[in-house]
Design brief:
The structure holds 2 protein chains of 2 kinds. By secondary structure, chain A is an alpha/beta fold. Chain A is built from 19 helices and 6 strands. Chain A has a 6-stranded parallel β-sheet. In chain A, strand 4, helix 18 and strand 5 form a beta-alpha-beta unit. The longest helix of chain B is centred in the C-terminal third of the chain and has 29 residues. Chain B is flat. The mean pLDDT of chain B is 88. Classes of the chains: A alpha/beta, B mainly alpha. The interface between A and B is large, with 121 and 88 residues.
Chain lengths: 480, 103
C-alpha cells in the first residue's frame, strides 16, 4: 500500500521559512519600545502566513477548521482585552498550558493518523526517528501542560504559593523522568508501536502529566519567575519537537527561538536571586525560612517612623528622588497614585527616576509593564545595573513594597539566605523613605532588613496605596 | 528534507534565538514572554494538518477531532497572545511635555 505523501511544494517551504524569519524579526523588534509594535505586527504576519500556507496545502474540512479558529480566536481576544496587568503572570502560565496541550494533541493525532503527516515508510510503519520526535514532543508538551496548570493555580492564588514537599520527591521525579526517557527509546524500537498500536505512547503521556505536577508543586511562590520562564522554554522545545516530526521550518525556527528565550529568562531570573537553576528546580525555598530569620527575633530595634506630611516635605525639598517599587506596590494597586506623586514632584523641579530590580514583579519585566500601564514614561525607568551607582548621589530613595531587593545583608552576611543576591543600594541615599505595612512582616526570604533601623531611614508604616495618596494630598496642599 | 538538514536549521535557529533574545531590553521581558507564547502556537500547523486530513482519510476521525481541539487551543493562544502583547506595548510611552493631570 502506497502511503507516501507528495513532498511539500517549493513555494510552501519558502513560505514557512519566511514565517520563521518574521518570527525572528518579531523578537528583534523588542530590543526597544519604539520598534516593538512593528515587531509584534511581523509576528502576526508570520503566523497568518504559516496558517494560510497550511490551509492552501490541505484544503479539506475547512468549515470545521474555520469554526475552530473562530471559537479559539474569539476566546483569546476577549481574554486579552479583559486581563488585568497584575494578572499577567497567571495569564502567561495559562497560555503556556495551552501550547503544551496543543503539542500533545498534535502528537497524538500524528500517532493515530501517521500517513496524513507523511511519517510512514513503504510498509505503513511509523518511522523510528518520527517515533522518537513524537515521544519527546508529547512528553515535553504534557509536562508543559500540567506544570503550567500548577503554576497558574499558584500564581492566581487558587492554590497556596508555599512549597508542597512530597517525601522522596527527588527519587520520585528522577525515577519518572528515567521512565519517560526509557519508554521513549523503547517506543522507537518496538514493532507494535511502529504499527501505531500498543499502550506505550499513552504510558509516556500519563507519566509526563504526572511529572509536570510533581516538578512544580515543591517550588515556592518567590521562585515563580523562574518557573514561568522555564515553562516558556519547554513550550518552545515542544513546538520544535513537533516541527521535526512535520519537517516544518516555521515550527523548528519558532521552537528554537522560544526555547532559547525561556532559557535565557530563567537564567536572568536565577542570577537576579543568586540562586542556581538546580536549587530552584529542587524546590522547597521559603519552606524553611527561619534559616537566617532567627536574627529577626531578639530585642526590638529602634526605628524612626514618619507621616505622609513628613515624606512630602522631605521629597519636595530634595533635588533627586529614586523610587524603588516592589511587588507590594502592585498588590496594593498603588502604581497610579505613585505616578501622580512623581508628576507632582517633577513640577516642583525634583528629578524623579524609578529603579527596577529584575525580580521586582512576579515574572520577568512585570514591574515595567505595571509602571507603563500607570503612564510612567519608560525613559524614567531604569534597570538595577544602570541606576545602582546613582543612589550615592541621590537625596531620597523611596522604597515602596520592596524589601529583600534592598537588603544590604545580601552583600555582607554570608549566612543570610539572600547572600550574594544583587541588591539596589538604597541605604546609600541621603534619606531612605520606606513604605511598609507594619514592622512585623518580613520579605519572601524571611530576613530582617537593617535599612529599617538605619539613622537615615524613615519608616512610613501604612498600606502602600493609602500612604502614597496621602503624600499626594500633602504635596497638593502644602505646595502653592 | 532529511533529518540532518532539519537539525542544521534547528541548531542555527537556537543560536539566532540566543543572540536575539539577549538584545531584548529587560523592560520588555513580559511582552517577550507573551509574544513567544503567541508564536510558539505555530504548532497550530500540525493541528490543521490533522484536522484537514481527518476529513479525507478513512479512520482519521479521532485524529481529526484531536486536531480540531488543537486548533481551538492554539487559536486562543495566537489571538490572545498577540492581542495582549499589542495592548502592553501600546502602554510604553516616552517622556513628553504635556499639561499636568488636574485633580
Amino acid at each position: 500500500m502506497e502511503h507516501a505523501v507528495a513532498a511539500t511544494p517549493a513555494w510552501a517551504v519558502l513560505a514557512y521559512l519566511a514565517a520563521g524569519v518574521l518570527f525572528i524579526l518579531a523578537l528583534r523588534g523588542l530590543s526597544s519600545p519604539e520598534s516593538s509594535q512593528a515587531g509584534n505586527r511581523n509576528g502576526m504576519i508570520g503566523m497568518a502566513l504559516a496558517v494560510g500556507t497550511t490551509l492552501v496545502l490541505h484544503p479539506t474540512g475547512l468549515p470545521l477548521i474555520i469554526g475552530a479558529i473562530a471559537i479559539g480566536g474569539g476566546i483569546g481576544w476577549v481574554i486579552a482585552q479583559r486581563i488585568q496587568m497584575t494578572a499577567m503572570p497567571e495569564l502567561v502560565a495559562g497560555f503556556h498550558s495551552l501550547v503544551g496541550m496543543a503539542a500533545v494533541l498534535v502528537g497524538c493525532a500524528a500517532y493515530l493518523n501517521p500517513a496524513a503527516f507523511g511519517i510512514v515508510d513503504a510498509e505503513g510503519s511509523i518511522l523510528a526517528v518520527s517515533r522518537v520526535e513524537m515521544g519527546l514532543g508529547i512528553a515535553i508538551g504534557a509536562i508543559t501542560f500540567s506544570g503550567s496548570i500548577i503554576a497558574f493555580l499558584k500564581l492566581s492564588g487558587r492554590m497556596s504559593g508555599s512549597p508542597i514537599l512530597l517525601p522522596g520527591r527527588h527519587v520520585l521525579n528522577l525515577g519518572v523522568l528515567a521512565g519517560i526517557l526509557g519508554l521513549t527509546a523503547f517506543f522507537a524500537i518496538d514493532a507494535t508501536a511502529a504499527a501505531g498500536q500498543g499502550p506505550l505512547l499513552w504510558i509516556i503521556l500519563g507519566l509526563s502529566f504526572l511529572i509536570g505536577v510533581t516538578l512544580i508543586i515543591p517550588i515556592g511562590g518567590a521562585d515563580m519567575p523562574v518557573v514561568i520562564s522555564m515553562l516558556n522554554s519547554y513550550s518552545g522545545w515542544a513546538a520544535a519537537a513537533m516541527g521535526f516530526t512535520l519537517q516544518n521550518t516555521a515550527m523548528i525556527i519558532t521552537g528554537a527561538l522560544v526555547g532559547s528565550s525561556g532559557a535565557i529568562l530563567s537564567y536572568i531570573m536565577c542570577r537576579a536571586m543568586n540562586r542556581s537553576f538546580i536549587s530552584v528546580i529542587a524546590g522547597g525555598f521559603g519552606a524553611e525560612a527561619d534559616a537566617g530569620g532567627a536574627k529577626a527575633s531578639g530585642p526590638a530595634k529602634s526605628y524612626k517612623a514618619g507621616s505622609a506630611d513628613d515624606a512630602a516635605f522631605i521629597m519636595q525639598n530634595a533635588e533627586s528622588v529614586i523610587i524603588v517599587p516592589g511587588y507590594g506596590m502592585a498588590v496594593s494597586q498603588a502604581q497610579h497614585a505613585l505616578r501622580e506623586m512623581g508628576e507632582l514632584l517633577k513640577k516642583e523641579g525634583v528629578s524623579v527616576k524609578y529603579a527596577i530590580h529584575p525580580v521586582a514583579g512576579r515574572m520577568p519585566g512585570h514591574m515595567n509593564v505595571l509602571l507603563a500601564e500607570a503612564n510612567v514614561p519608560y525613559d524614567e525607568v531604569f534597570e538595577l545595573e544602570d541606576i545602582n551607582s546613582e543612589f550615592g548621589q541621590c537625596d531620597v530613595a523611596f522604597v515602596i513594597g520592596a524589601n529583600d531587593v534592598t537588603n544590604p545583608l545580601a552583600k555582607t552576611d554570608k549566612t543570610s539566605p539572600i547572600y550574594g543576591m544583587p541588591i539596589l543600594d538604597v541605604e546609600k541615599a541621603k534619606t531612605v523613605l520606606f513604605i511598609k505595612r507594619s514592622m512585623g512582616g518580613v520579605g519572601y526570604a524571611g530576613v530582617d532588613n537593617p535599612v529599617f533601623y538605619a539613622d537615615n531611614t524613615m519608616m512610613l508604616l501604612a498600606d502602600a496605596k493609602k500612604m502614597v495618596e496621602n503624600i499626594v494630598k500633602a504635596l497638593n496642599g502644602g505646595g502653592h | 528534507m532529511d533529518f540532518l538538514s532539519i537539525l542544521s536549521i534547528f541548531v542555527l535557529a537556537v543560536f539566532v534565538g540566543y543572540y536575539v533574545v539577549w538584545s531584548v531590553t529587560p523592560a520588555l521581558h513580559t511582552p517577550l514572554m507573551a509574544v513567544t507564547n503567541a508564536i510558539s502556537s505555530v504548532i497550530i500547523v500540525g493541528a490543521l494538518i490533522a484536522a484537514a486530513a481527518g476529513a479525507i482519510t478513512e479512520g482519521g476521525g479521532l485524529s481529526m477531532w484531536l486536531g480540531l481541539l488543537g486548533v481551538v487551543l492554539a487559536s486562543v493562544n495566537i489571538f490572545g497572545g498577540f492581542a495582549v502583547t499589542r495592548r502592553m506595548l501600546a502602554m510604553y510611552k516616552k517622556k513628553e511635555k504635556k499639561p499636568a493631570a488636574s485633580k
